[in-house]
């Protein structure tokens, strides 16, 4: 629908909200995109189980009153297909949380009845969604059938050029957008770093091996550069995994789902 969405290159990490049995994530595997499917624990308790059995990353998580446990600008794309979330309630506090996690220049896809239906109550929902996304500076890049796609801005220029009375406001400067442990949601827009950190990631697969500029913002008690640590960790873990594969015959085990209990820098 949108040619600018370059799956597997600039769009590499996606979040699927209320993903059912992760059909969206399974489809994007063919496009070289890793999709994390999240859903609340349903009455059957089976959605996340089925997603993992399909080989798609999945976690139990829900938009509620606290931030989800992901840093700011974590996802290149966020998808919600009939996910049952009222994005405009409480001054748009839940959409503002999605905005916090969405990378600068990233895409938000909403597939729902209000996009296409003409009943009065659904038209009102679409009008409210359009008004909110405009106020948080998202650009509607495509609307077709029951699917709408918005793009988040690349920088703060739109936020700073809004009328001072427009709500929601920008978050305070002392609000750490990466502080997620037991942190309540806020009805404010998370500003983007002025240095471009987060939006200036390399395309895939260079992104996997090239130390991101955002690495400079991480607090470390280290005496060497963060880029050196990044490369050293990758080299070390490559050697470790090669030993695992050889010693434990991992190739014969056909492993698909792995949980890394100490992710470090992702090596």
Detailed description of the structure:
The chain is an alpha/beta fold. The longest helix is centred in the C-terminal third of the chain and has 23 residues, at 226-248. Among the domains are: 13-160, Vaccinia Virus protein VP39 (Rossmann fold); 218-253. It has 8 helices and 7 strands, in the order E-H-E-H-E-E-H-E-H-E-E-H-H-H-H. The chain has helices at 23-29, 47-53, 89-101, 120-135, 157-160, 206-209, 226-248, 250-253, and strands at residues 13-17, 34-39, 58-60, 75-81, 102-111, 139-144, 147-151. It is globular. The mean pLDDT is 90. It is a single-pass membrane protein; Single-pass type II membrane protein.
Largest sheet: 7 strands, mixed
Assign an overall shape.
Answer: globular
| Number of H- or I-type helical stretches | 8
Distance between the termini: 34 Å
Give me the strand/helix succession. Answer: EHEHEEHEHEEHHHH
Write the SSE topology:
Elements: E1 13-17, H1 23-29, E2 34-39, H2 47-53, E3 58-60, E4 75-81, H3 89-101, E5 102-111, H4 120-135, E6 139-144, E7 147-151, H5 157-160, H6 206-209, H7 226-248, H8 250-253
Parallel strand pairs: 1-2, 1-4, 2-3, 4-5
Antiparallel strand pairs: 5-7, 6-7
What key phrases describe this protein's structure?
single chain, 267 residues, alpha/beta, Rossmann fold, 8 helices, globular
Describe the structure concisely:
With 267 residues, the chain is of the alpha/beta class.
């Amino acid at each position: 629908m949108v040619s600018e969405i370059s799956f597997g290159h600039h769009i590499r990490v996606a979040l699927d909200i209320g993903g059912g049995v992760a059909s969206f994530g399974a489809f994007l595997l063919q496009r070289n995109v890793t999709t994390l499917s999240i859903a609340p624990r349903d009455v059957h308790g089976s959605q996340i189980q089925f997603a993992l059995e399909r080989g798609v990353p999945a976690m139990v998580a829900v938009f509620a009153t606290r931030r989800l446990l992901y840093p700011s600008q974590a996802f290149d794309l966020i998808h919600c297909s009939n996910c049952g979330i009222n994005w405009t309630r409480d001054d748009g506090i839940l959409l503002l949380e999605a905005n916090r996690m969405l990378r600068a220049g990233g895409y938000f896809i909403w597939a729902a009845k209000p996009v296409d239906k003409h009943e009065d109550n659904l038209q009102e929902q679409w009008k409210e969604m359009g008004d909110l996304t405009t106020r948080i500076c998202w650009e509607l890049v495509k609307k077709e059938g029951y699917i709408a796609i918005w793009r988040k801005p690349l920088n703060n220029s739109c936020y700073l050029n809004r009328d001072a009375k427009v709500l929601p406001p920008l978050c305070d400067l002392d609000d750490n957008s990466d502080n997620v442990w037991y942190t309540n949601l806020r009805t404010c827009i998370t500003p983007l770093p002025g240095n471009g950190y987060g939006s200036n990631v390399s395309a895939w697969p260079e992104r996997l091996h090239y130390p991101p500029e955002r690495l400079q913002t991480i607090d470390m008690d280290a005496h060497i550069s963060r880029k050196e640590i990044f490369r050293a960790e990758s080299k070390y873990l490559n050697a470790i995994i090669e030993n695992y594969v050889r010693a434990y015959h991992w190739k014969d085990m056909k492993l698909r789902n792995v949980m890394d209990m100490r992710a470090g820098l992702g090596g």
